[in-house]
Amino acid sequence: MDKVVQVISAKYPCRKALIQKLYQLFGDGDPFPPAVYLYGHTSTGKSSILQAFLPLLDSSTSWAILSAIECYTNKILFETILNRLTGHVPCAANRYASLASV
């Protein structure tokens, strides 16, 4: 078992099966899957585990975590992905515009 799995499992007890599955998808040197959809009951740690897991991987691959509920149109989905990958944050200085609109 990899050190990443041990570190995240210690931080999130009783989630070892999910963490091992994530490691199978992302951690063994194979190319990343184009998309991963995590689903389950609310407040069970899905996003927290993923946000802790991805930065620990030895990879130069960019990634974005987003909510499928918040991205209810294709435009919002793609703008959110673009903003997250580039680090753009809509704020008062840019009139709350996404990077695609700037």
Describe the protein.
The chain has 102 residues and is mostly helical. The protein has 2 domains: 63 residues, no CATH class; 37 residues, no CATH class. 40% of the residues lie in helices and 0% in strands. The protein contains 4 helices and no strands. Helix 1 packs antiparallel against helix 2. The longest helix has 13 residues. It is elongated, with a radius of gyration of 16 Å. The N and C termini lie far apart (45 Å). Belongs to the ORC5 family. This is Origin recognition complex subunit 5. GO terms for molecular function: DNA replication origin binding. One of its GO terms (cellular component) is nuclear origin of replication recognition complex. It comes from Culex pipiens.
SSE layout and pairings?
Layout: H1 3-11, H2 16-26, H3 46-53, H4 74-86
Helix pairs in contact: 1-2
Overall tally of domains: 2
Compute the number of strand runs. 0
- Average pLDDT value? 87
Please outline the major beta sheet. Answer: none
Number of helices: 4
Q: Give, in order, the helices and strands.
A: HHHH
Determine the N-to-C terminus distance: 45 Å
Shape: elongated
Quick rundown:
The chain is mostly helical. The protein has helices at 3-11, 16-26, 46-53, 74-86. It has 2 domains: 1-63, no CATH class; 66-102, no CATH class.
Summarize this structure as a short list of keywords or feature phrases.
102 residues, mainly alpha, 40% helix, elongated
